[in-house]
Specification:
This protein is mainly α. The protein is about 85% helix and about 0% strand. The chain has five helices and no strands. Helix 1 runs antiparallel to helix 2 (about 25-40), helix 3 (about 50-60) packs antiparallel against helix 4 and helix 4 (about 65-100) runs antiparallel to helix 5. The longest helix is centred in the middle third of the chain and has 34 residues, at about 65-100. The N and C termini lie far apart (about 50 Å). The mean pLDDT is about 80.
């Protein structure tokens, strides 16, 4: 429902700006859009703690098997990259909420971390599939 209100208010902001409606109505829809955008981001605060806990748990697991340690190293790298993504994302959200502006843009700072984490996750999946196929052969 929140997403619907946010996008409806975005459309209404656009329509009231281009259709020559009173500026008061335009400002009201714009304020609604911006507040809904911020409120939808609040659930993401402190998600980096999930990755921190996963990294901590993985580091506590001990193994002497080389393949298990390589797998664990890749998993820790993935979690560390997503940890950085969430830390920067939290900075952007808090900066927007507290100061009303953002020093960094989402596309320049966090997207790179998300892409690197996703690529490593795909690589890990391929490695696990090939290891599973070798075991069955």
């Amino acid at each position: 429902m929140g997403k619907f209100i946010q996008y409806f208010s975005r459309l209404a902001t656009y329509l009231t700006q281009t259709e020559g409606h009173p500026t008061q109505l335009h400002k009201a829809f714009k304020a609604l859009f911006e507040s809904m955008s911020t409120s939808r981001k609040l659930f993401r605060l402190f998600k980096f703690m999930n990755d921190y806990i996963k990294i901590r748990d993985m580091l506590q697991q001990k193994s002497t098997d080389l393949l298990v340690n390589i797998n664990k190293g890749i998993q820790i790298s993935i979690r560390a990259i997503f940890f950085l993504y969430w830390v920067i994302d939290n900075y952007l959200i808090l900066n927007k909420i507290l100061l009303g502006k953002s020093g960094l843009t989402k596309s320049t700072s966090t997207t790179k971390f998300w892409i690197y984490g996703s690529l490593l996750s795909i690589m890990l999946g391929v490695l696990e599939i090939t290891a599973g196929l070798r075991e069955k052969a």
